[in-house]
Each structure stands twice: as C-alpha cells, then as structure tokens.
Design brief:
This protein has 173 residues and is an alpha+beta fold. It has one domain. It has 4 helices and 10 strands, in the order H-E-E-H-H-E-H-E-E-E-E-E-E-E. The protein has helices at 2-21, 49-54, 64-72, 83-93; strands spanning 30-35, 38-46, 79-80, 100-103, 109-116, 121-130, 133-143, 151-155, 158-162, 168-172. Strands 3-7-6-5-4 form a 5-stranded antiparallel beta sheet. Strands 8-9-10 form a 3-stranded antiparallel beta sheet, with no helix packed on it. The protein is globular and about 50 Å long.
Amino acid sequence: MKNHIRAALSLAVVLATACSSSSIHISDAMRTVTYRDATIQLSRTYLDFHDYRDDPNNLPPTEVPRVAQLVRSAPIPSTFASRKEADDTFFRLMFPGYGLSMLQLHDPVALYSIEVPQTGEDRWVVLIEKNGRWVVVDDFLWPVSSGYLNQATYENGRLTYFDRSGRMLREKK
C-alpha cells in the first residue's frame, strides 16, 4: 500500500513539474489578438494575457490607427430588448485588454464607455429606457482630457452630462 501511495505521489510531482514548466508553449504565446474579425499584431510576443494587458505599449504604433477606427466604427444596434442584452453587446465591443465602463446601472439613463486604445479618448454610448426597451440616444467620442463623464440626465429630449462633482461637461439637444 505504501508503495502505491509513494508511486502516486511521485507521479503527481512529475506531472506537476512537467505542467508548470511547460504550461506556456510557444504556440500558446500571444502575438496577435482578434477584434471584430480583424487580426491585430501586437508590439511583441506575450506569454499570457495579463502581461499583454499590463503593457501600456502592447500595440505597435502602426496598428493604433486601425484599432482606433475599428472601435470607433463598431456597429451598435439602435435598440436592445434588455439592459443585459446591451451589457453583453458592449462587453463584446470592448477591445481585448482595454476598458469598458457601465454607469448608472439602475437608472433610466444608461452610460457605456469603451476605451479607444492608446488614443486618449473613449467612445460613449447612452441608452434610455423607453416602452420596455433600451434605445440608443447618443454615441460620441470624448477626449479623456476633457474630464470623466460620470452621470447623464435625459429630460425633454435633452441629454446633459456631468462629472463627479456635478459640473456640466456636455449637453446635447
């Protein structure tokens, strides 16, 4: 019995060592990411997603304009059957390793912000609840340097955007 336990433990140690030393194969390394059916070259080969995500220069300068255009032009449906459907859509539109913000989760005005990689801007999409559906009422690019949009109100066809301190940053009629 002791020999069986010792053999099982030895096998477990060998397997653990083999798996830990070869868990990343060169074929598993990240050289590209796929976004909206486009293959995007990375600035170097990454051994895992976390290394890629944490590198502020993960895209080569030649790819940034193409990636930015893909994010800026990603088609967004004009209506959603539910807030969950909208959430799922925006998760799919987020460029791998970059940001997505969902604000006012329980309000009748929903704010989504998709980071446009390495451009200093975000794509903001605003939905309102109307007749049991979520309808897109605004879709625009906003420079990060202009302040962070934290809240929006929709009254009488007018959208007003505010920062964290309540200062109005943008208005759309």
